[in-house]
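$ fold --in a.seq
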Amino acid sequence: MKLVNTAAVPQYDGLKYGGDESDAHHLAHLMRLGILPEGYIYLREGRGVRDLLRQRFIFVRQSVSAMQRVQGAWARYTGQCLSANAFRQLTDHAIRQAFPDPCVRMAVCAQ
């Protein structure tokens, strides 16, 4: 028995009739070709690790997105590129010099 990821199954075109039998033939054909997208149900013991990895991925994505927003603001207001290493070494003094407008500075610091 296979657990099929139905959202990832490519639709088939050109059929005049659709039903359970034709769907079964299509899925069997994809399975023979080795391109049937399958799902996986984690064992109960591994679900906690899976959830932690998903949460870590979300945090990393949010962190990178925030860094890119600050880099974009830095480029708009100073005309210079800000590398990831330079971003990590930013000080309050450097931010005050780059963004003299307090509203813009507050928006950047919120990121």
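$ fold --in b.seq
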Amino acid sequence: MKVLIVSKTHMNTGVCVGGITFDGRFVRLLDNNGHNQSDDCPFKINEAYDITFIEKQNPTPPHIEDILVQSSKYVGRLKDGISMIDFITKRNISICRGNIDNLFDKALKFTTNGSGYINSSKIPQNSVSFWIADKDLIKSIDSKGKVRYKYQTDDPWSSEIQIKYVGLQPTEDIIPKGTLLRVSLARWWSPNDVEVENRCYLQLSGWYK
């Protein structure tokens, strides 16, 4: 099956590679053992591959996109003049538009420091989404030196929402509103030292011009 690579993100081990099949399905390309791809994997954003794969057995929602790559063959790049939004629109892939609250079936909740997440109270259909935001995203650096992008809510009493950036493309100080973004939900996780339920946290994978 032909797959267009749309994202590569940092992980604790290896990289997470996201794609879209040519018939419009979100996929996450794991290796044949079900692990993240290695840092030196050949897949690059905007490249297309003919991939033989098997489905991951018993996926845990919302991470239903996982496939185990058995073999891959490079077939070319997205042609000049065809944008990512052209590619996904032609395949009837939905794009979330407007306020951040609209993302992930309106299942997002927010911590006091502005991090978005879902929990088991409402699980969206997918763990990835394309989004065209109604506001600029402003780059910031957190206390751990990690890049986050701030989204200012309409509520003057609410703190800014901060989205962790996990992509590999160079950062920009401002990502203008109206830009096509790819966002995702991290794997289920809870800290060991705090009594908090398992959550999937919102993260920014990248953007397209």
